[in-house]
Amino acid sequence: MPMPAAVLCGLGSSLPKRVVPNSRLVEENGLATDSEWILRRTGIAARHMADPRTSTGDLATAAGRAALDSARNLAGSPLVPDILLLATTTPDHRCPATAPEVAHRMGLEAVPALDVNAACAGFLYALTLAKGLVTAGLYTHPLVIGAETYTTALVDPHDRDTAILFGDGAGAILLRPGTASQPGALLAEDLGTDGSRTGLVRVPAGGSRTPFGSPGTTRKDFYLVMNGKAVYAQAVRRITASALAALDRTRWSADDVEAFVSHQANQRIIDDVAGRLGVPAARCHGNLRHVGNTAAASIPLALADAAERNLVRPGARTLLGGFGAGLAWGAHTLHFPEARPLTRSPHHADHQGAAP
């Protein structure tokens, strides 16, 4: 008997209510730039930013609930997750993991839950783990969430190199067993890392290598720093190669790709990768202009956005690609899902302590 495929059967998202356009970001943070320069350089016009009371766990909980609503609407009955994977670089606490509390707030008592940290590629890593659990028959309904609050947790608001890029949000998917021919079926993946280049994008202090209070550290050492030019080159190279590897394992060519959903880091990166792959711009889908770089949340948020706006037909041959600190990267192929977010019931994040 063949192994089951993992099928995406629920999609959900959660964005902070506060929308900050480039002009306001520049004015409030005293950045030495202007809104048009940011748009030209990044493709970002605005982003959603969490207030200090809203945590990654708040956003993750709301997105997870939205994904379950979507799955229930498609299936006609509730589907209960039996494991939860939370991709994030901005957990609520350094210890413990955030995923168990998210599971508790969703009413998933005693369900195994864990955080996955592969920076902006984290969702693709968590998706690979969840797929393996389904195909191995270990779990039937993994809930995979990507959630981040970079603007309050990691980004120096006065650093032009990073402050213009990031936004906050969460996206979630639910998987179930099925067949590889169904809409939503996950097909092939490719993942990789290069730990020799950790210095290109990182938070220098605050971990065990350079603990709080270490001599010589300053406030800036606890914020994200990035070598933008080098990261750009690595991102384009790694996503392109990983995407080609995933396509080869699926026995697709670039011409077969009907939808490309990339990590929403920078529009120039997305365009460069698509050009190298030979995927037309009309087949590239994302929401970078309105939400910015939401790190591990960006791919599920972009998937949910494309599904909500009916931009991609169910079953369409779809390619995902991502890159982040670590360095870490990955790509997935799938048939675009039938699942749609329930836009009639917006899911904004509740603050900590809200009833599950």
UniProtKB/TrEMBL annotation:
Keywords from UniProt, A to Z, are: Acyltransferase, Cytoplasm, Transferase
Pfam families listed in its UniProt record: ACP_syn_III (PF08545), ACP_syn_III_C (PF08541)
Residue span(s) of domain Beta-ketoacyl-[acyl-carrier-protein] synthase III N-terminal: 114-195
Q: Does the keyword Disulfide bond apply?
A: no
State the CDD domains in the record: KAS_III
Locate the coiled-coil region(s) and give their ranges. Answer: none
> PANTHER family per the record?
3-OXOACYL-[ACYL-CARRIER-PROTEIN] SYNTHASE 3, BETA-KETOACYL-[ACYL-CARRIER-PROTEIN] SYNTHASE III
Name assigned to this protein: Beta-ketoacyl-ACP synthase III
Organism of origin is: Kitasatospora putterlickiae
